[in-house]
Each structure stands twice: as structure tokens, then as C-alpha cells.
Amino acid sequence: MQNRKLSAWVDEVADQTRPDRVVFCDGSEAENRTLIQGMLSDGTLLALDGERYPNCYLHRSDPTDVARTEHLTFICTRDKEDAGPTNNWMSPDEASQRVGRLFDGAMKGRTMFVVPYLMGPVGSPSAKVGIEITDSPYVVASMRIMTRMGRVALDALGSSEDFCRGLHSLGDLSPERRFVCHFPAERLIWSVGSGYGGNALLGKKCFALRIASTMARDEGWFAEHMLILGLEDPGGRVTYVCAAFPSACGKTNLAMLVPPASQKGWKVWTVGDDIAWLRIGRDGRLWAINPEAGFFGVAPGTSSRTNPNALATLARNSIFTNVALTPEGTPWWEGFDGPVPPVLTDWRGRRWTPDSKEPAAHPNSRFTAPARQCPSISTEFDAAAGVPISAIVFGGRRARLAPLVCEARGWAHGVYLGATMASETTAAATGKVGVVRRDPMAMRPFCGYNMADYFRHWIELGENRAAFPKIFHVNWFRQSEAGALLWPGFGENLRVLRWIVARVRGEAKGHDTPVGIMPTDGELDTSGLGVNDEAMRELFAIDRDAWLEEARDREAFLESFGSRMPEALLRQNRDLMARIRA
Ligand SMILES: Nc1nc2c(ncn2[C@@H]2O[C@H](COP(=O)(O)OP(=O)(O)OP(=O)(O)O)[C@@H](O)[C@H]2O)c(=O)[nH]1
Ligand SMILES: O=C([O-])CC(=O)C(=O)O
Ligand SMILES: [Mn+2]
Q1: Residue 333: which region, alpha, beta or left (left: phi > 0; alpha: psi -120 to 50)?
Q2: Taking CA atoms, which of 28, 213, 450, 475 is between 20 and 30 Å from 360?
Q3: Considering only the top CATH level, what class is 295-373?
Q4: How confident is the model over 229-239, as pLDDT tens digits?
Q5: Any idea where the Phosphoenolpyruvate carboxykinase C-terminal P-loop domain is (predicted)?
Q6: Rg of the Cα trace of the chain?
Q7: What's the gap in Å between 427 CA and the centre of ligand 3?
Q8: Does residue 205's CB lie within 6 angstroms of at least one atom of ligand 2?
Q9: CATH of the domain spanning 224-292+378-581
Q10: pTM beyond 0.80, yes or no
Q11: Ligand 1 neighbour 252 (Cβ under 6 A)
């Protein structure tokens, strides 16, 4: 190997972890076939029906290891304040003692894989190299789908010392010895005791968000938990939009949206479904690339009604994790097409019938599929410069309060809308589901530094930049008093995207409200939608008492960061209170 820093690190890790063999992954077809064969023979993977799902496999994870574990995820800076109140912190010394030692001899009897990967399109100035060392062949096969892996990454690296190191071991899979540690100063990640996606595929949340967000702070760009899509109008003009929704709140679905029949001539092109790296272009606009090459998508709820593009994408060369299995050897999950099968094998391998009390697929079961297989993949997916962004959309899952759509009054107000976002928790992370929590910019679990500094970075980067995107907030999940969803969502979300793009182009007037700019009567196309006027009113209703309570809660949240919180955001909150009271 020509790269000296890399070979020195590989030697050091092998000395510590004591694997039986070391394999340098080249990402080739042949290498992948060998890996898959190995996993089929030891039961790590099950082959699915080869006619209907060619080259597709099912993986069942340890039942205690099915989602990200935020309470076991740490930012290891010297100073605790630099991690901030939303992160768990561990000093680098303590991490060495408590976590570093778990790697001693951890790979005995196993193969150590060295996985070079590239985050971003080949040749893009925004692309970055990572190296993951892992003892999990499932991780290697998944990284091959999720990133540009192997030779291509080593070529991009050359002899450079500029790469992110990630060390991963399954350890003994015990939750007591499970840790995900980040050392931003060294661009280093340690993950032990979990084989689950967000904990183990280190290019994704660990590098592309937690480590990259600290690089972005230092270098003047953004690393965000955002989808990227292009909305093409009937005239063929494409407008690019980024959207940040918390985990399992609709990014994949919006990124692959198929317009309903009523929306003739409109088309959505998918650039990314989870992560965006955004840089200021020479033209002063924000340009986005998707650092990933695949989708690690939520399975439950995915059907030909809700997301036909996802179904087409995952039909070949895909790995399914913790879904149910039909007797025909095809994957199944709650919300799948057609009637519920009379008998299934559940995600843990047990017999399941519709009388069973638990869901057949784990609520956080996922598919890992190559992005290029997506029917709506954008022609700009591999574009080195990325795509120019005209709108940034924040959104959460909120049964009450948040309107269907509103627009910020300017950049600082937009940053405030993102910073005070809240959403109900989902099965994407272990813990209680359905609890409203603040999840600023959908980055609470993924920001690698103090979020007050992160807000400052957002405010400063966009100040006085006329060509920057407009900012919006959406909520597909508002409910009636009776608890029914008011908005049909999925393909119909196109109507909201259309209003957003009309605003960006100066083609819609909107009207001011205390919480932001909303569509004026007639601007949101509701023809053939099947939502009655009363429900449409409820979707935009502003309950002043509830909003005052919300503003007080936001104030407490912003103040919990102490003196590092930018005054501009506290001012935005005071202004909101004043407008509600007026
Ligand atoms: N009611 C409703 N549900 C939606 C909508 N969009 C997505 N969902 C559901 O929300 C769940 C998660 O959606 P995804 O699109 O996979 O979420 P994501 O934001 O990509 O999630 P991560 O991969 O965890 O970051 C799925 O069960 C979807 O069916 C919508 O517009 N309305
Ligand atoms: O990383 C994961 O495990 C899946 C994901 O996108 C998220 O949780 O936001
Ligand atoms: Mn995500």
C-alpha cells in the first residue's frame, strides 16, 4: 500500500485487535460475491427469492441492536462545553480507558476488513475519503452499496493524509459494551458493540454528519441531515430544494415523490435522501452534493401507493435488515402492498400470523439499495459541483400546532425556525416513540459540536447573501381533535413544493401571519385533493394560547445553551411572542 499514514494505522489496529486475517477491500464484484457467499453459509444473510428479488438478501440483527443508540453516542472533545448540552460527552482520556480497551483482541477469530470509501461524487471538490476498519462482513457489503467503495476511494486518496478514520468492531454485541465515540480533532471514530446501520456504517451519520459538521464549521460550509430534490415544472425548468426532517419523518419519501395524476407535467428528481453537504459557489448560491451512493431507507409504510420509486429501487441488489419474510421468500413489512399474508416469519425468525401482538417487521427495519437504481434518480446525481439550492425546508412530525407550510421572513428567522424545530420521536433511535422533543435542523443526534455554535455558524454563513435559499417549515403530520391526519401526504406533498417554488420565483404572494408567511387563498392548489375546507383551515390554524406556550418552551430551550446562544435567535423568539400577543 502506498499511503503511509494508512498502512501505519492498519498495522496499529491489527496489533491491537488481533484478527485472524486482514483483507483490503477493492470494492469489486468478485470480492462482494465471496463476502455474500460467506454470509450465506454462516447464516448472517438469507437469500431472498431470486426471481422476484435478484441478488437480494435478508439480515436479522441482534434483537437488542436494531436502531441508533443516542445514549451511547459520545463526542470526545477536550472541553465538555465544545460538545454542548445536546450531546453526550466523554473526555478523550476516559474514552481510551473505557472504550479503546474494548478493541483489545476484539477481532480474534475474525477477519479484519479495511474499507476505503469516498463520500461524494468522484472528482468532486466536495468529496472526502474515509477508511473504515471493521470485523463485520455485513458492514462491508452495506458500505459497498451506501458509498463509492474500494479502488475508487484509494485512487482519490493517493498519498494524502487527509482522511477520516473509523474503527468498528461488533465486539460481543452487549449493550453494556456498546459505544459510538467521535474525536472531531483527529477525524477519528470508534464504534463497538453494534452492527446496526447508523452505529456501524461509519461513513453515514458518524463521518458525513458528526465529524463533517465540525469540518464544515471550521471551513465555512454545511453538513446537514437533508434530502436533495429537483422539482421540474411542466415547462422543463428544474428548481432544487433541500429538506431536513428528523429520522423517520419523511425525507426518503419526499425525495422520491411521484406526483399524483392531477399534477400533470410536474416531476421530482432525486439527488439524495438523507445527507447534504452544501458549499457557497462562486455565484454566491448554495450548492449541494449528496455524499452517499445508496439509500438506507425505512421499510414500514413503503408501498406502491406511498413510494413506488423506493419499491422499484429495492427490487434488486439490496440488503434488507429486520423485515419479515413471506413463505415465498420475499420481504414484507407493515404497510406493504396487498392483503396481510396469513402467515409470515417475523423479523426475529419466529412464526407470525395476523393475530400476533407484535409487528412482523421491526418498526425500524430498513432496506439498503443502490441510488442509481432509483427510477427518479437525477441526472445531476454524480455532478461534481452538485446542484444549486433555491429553498431549504425544515419539518417535523407534530400532531398539533405546526402549520402545513410557512415561510421564514428572512435568513435569521429561517435559522430560528430550524433551531426551534420539534418533532415526535420515532423508532429510528432506541427509546420512547411519540414524545415531542426539540430537534434543531433535524441535527440534534448528529451535530458534532455545541449546537449554539452551530446556530451561530448558520446565521453567519447566510448573512447578507441575497442569492441564498429561502427557508420554509412544513408539517405533514397535523391531526384533527379526533386524532385523524388532516393531510394526505406522500405524492400530494407536491402541492406544497409547488407553492414553495412559486415563492422562490416570485410567482406567489403569500400573506404574513405571526408565525411566518403562509399561502393566500387560492395559492395552494387543492383541486381534486379531497381535503375539505374545514380541514384546510385547521392545517393552517394558529392557536394563540398554544403558540405562547410554545414560544415559552422555545425560550427555555434556547436559554439552556447559556451565553453561547446567539442573541439573534433569542430576539427572534421575543419578536414571535410580541406578534402573537399583538
Ligand atoms: N402520513 C405521512 N407519513 C409519511 C409521509 N412521508 C413519509 N411518511 C412515513 O414516515 C416514515 C419514515 O419516512 P422516511 O421517508 O423513510 O423518513 P426519513 O426522514 O428518510 O428517515 P431516516 O432514514 O430515518 O432519516 C415511513 O413510514 C413513511 O411511510 C407523509 O407525507 N405523510
Ligand atoms: O442512520 C440510521 O440509522 C438511519 C437514519 O437515516 C437515521 O436514523 O436518521
Ligand atoms: Mn437519517
Answers
A1: beta
A2: 475
A3: mainly beta
A4: 999 999 999 99
A5: 221-578
A6: 23
A7: 12
A8: yes
A9: 3.90.228.20
A10: yes
A11: yes
Cell numbers found for residue 26: 477493492
β strands within 291-345, DSSP E = 294-298, 319-321, 324-325, 331-332, 344-345
132, 157, 278 from 1: Cα distances, Å: 16, 12, 33
Segment 113-123, tens digit of pLDDT: 999 999 999 99
Residue 165 CB less than 6 A away from ligand 2: no
How many C-beta atoms lie closer than 10 Å to residue 338's C-beta? 8
Phi-psi domain of 334 (left: phi exceeds 0; alpha: psi -120 through 50; beta: other):
beta
CA 157 to ligand 1 centroid distance, Å:
35
- The predicted model gives 172-179 an average pLDDT of 97
The H-assigned helical ranges of 424-543 are 451-462, 494-504, 533-540
Tell me: pLDDT of 210 over 70. yes
DSSP state of 293: S
Q: Is the CB of 297 under 6 A from ligand 2?
A: no
Per-residue pLDDT tens over the stretch 424-439: 999 999 999 999 999 9
Domain 4-44+67-220 belongs to what architecture? 3-Layer(aba) Sandwich (3.40)
CA of 428 to the centre of ligand 2 (A): 6
Whether residue 449 is predicted with pLDDT greater than 90 in this model: the reply is yes
Tell me whether the CATH fold assigned to 4-44+67-220 matches the one assigned to 224-292+378-581. no
CA distance 343 to 181: 41
* pLDDT of 2 over the 90 cut: no
Quick check: 56 and 316 in contact, CB under 8 A? yes
Q: Is 68 in the pocket of ligand 2 (CB under 6 A)?
A: yes
Instruction: Establish whether 397 is an annotated binding residue.
Output: yes
Nearest CA-CA partner of 24 in 168, 189, 134, 169: 134
User: Which cell numbers in the block locate residue 390?
Assistant: 433555491
Per residue in 309-341, pLDDT (tens digit) is 999 999 999 999 999 999 999 999 999 999 999
283 assigned binding-site residue: no
Whole-number Å distance between alpha carbons of 241 and 227? 8
Cell 458525513 locates to: 208
Is any atom of ligand 1 closer than 6 Å to the C-beta of 300? yes
What backbone phi and psi angles, to 5 degrees, belong to 223?
-115, 115
- Tell me, what amino acid is at 266? W
Q: Is 374 a catalytic residue?
A: no
Ligand 1, atom 11, lies closest to the CA of 248
247 CA to centre of ligand 2 in angstroms: 6
List 164, 249, 374, 406, catalytic entry: 249
Write the DSSP symbol of residue 409.
S
Hey, whose CA ends up nearest to atom 1 of ligand 2? 198
Domain regions of the chain by residue span: 4-44+67-220, 224-292+378-581, 295-373
The count of other CB atoms within 10 Å of the CB of residue 538 is 18
Q: Is 7 annotated among the ligand-binding residues?
A: no
Residue 462 has pLDDT above 70, yes or no: yes
CA–centroid distance for 456 within its chain: 22
What sign results for the dihedral spanned by CA atoms 297, 417, 511, 235? negative
Pocket of ligand 1, candidates 66, 227, 249: which has the most ligand atoms within 8 Å of its Cβ, to mutate? 249
